[in-house]
């Protein structure tokens, strides 16, 4: 096989490879979808499946001064949950909530006593300082 024929064969193979779609093809929607979708409403309503879930997480890092978390459960059209966060003033904020057709209804409470930095020797308030790592 001659060198020019090999080069021609290689270039033809490369062109053929590059011209084929690589990966999934993103095409416009077809004219006749299998299941008609409404033109209004939320996509969750289109599926017709109930929207039920539950999740939670907690973060506690004493060195960084972090303490927060969130828990939520949803059954059909009602979500209930709570979250908490350690505030810079030393208190912890707790929020219990319900979210449904009536909207988001939180109940907020605080635990602990707020403490603020004292004035600096220069007379001005220094405020909160971030810890450098």
UniProtKB/TrEMBL annotation:
What GO molecular functions are on record for this protein? structural constituent of cuticle
Task: Tell me yes or no: is DNA repair among this UniProt entry's keywords.
Answer: no
Region entry Disordered, spans: 25-48, 112-133
Q: List the keywords (alphabetical).
A: Cuticle, Signal
Which residues, by range, are in coiled-coil regions?
none
Point out the signal peptide segment: 1-19
Cite the PROSITE patterns for this sequence: CHIT_BIND_RR_1, CHIT_BIND_RR_2
An example of a Gene Ontology cellular component annotation for this protein is: extracellular matrix
Spell out where the chain crosses the membrane.
none
Record protein name field: Pro-resilin-like isoform X1
- The source organism is Ceratosolen solmsi marchali
Query: Gene of origin?
Result: LOC105361863
């Amino acid at each position: 096989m001659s060198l020019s024929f090999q080069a021609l064969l290689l270039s033809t193979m490369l062109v053929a490879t590059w011209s084929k779609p690589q990966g999934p093809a993103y095409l416009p929607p077809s004219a006749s979808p299998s299941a008609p979708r409404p033109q209004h409403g939320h996509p969750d309503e289109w599926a017709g499946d109930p929207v039920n879930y539950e999740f939670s997480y907690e973060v506690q890092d004493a060195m960084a001064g972090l303490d927060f978390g969130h828990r939520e459960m949803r059954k059909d059209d009602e979500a209930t949950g709570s979250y908490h966060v350690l505030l810079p003033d030393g208190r912890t904020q707790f929020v219990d909530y319900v979210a449904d057709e009536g909207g988001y209804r939180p109940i907020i409470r605080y635990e602990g006593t707020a403490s603020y930095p004292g004035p600096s020797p220069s007379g001005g308030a220094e405020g909160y300082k971030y810890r450098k790592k």
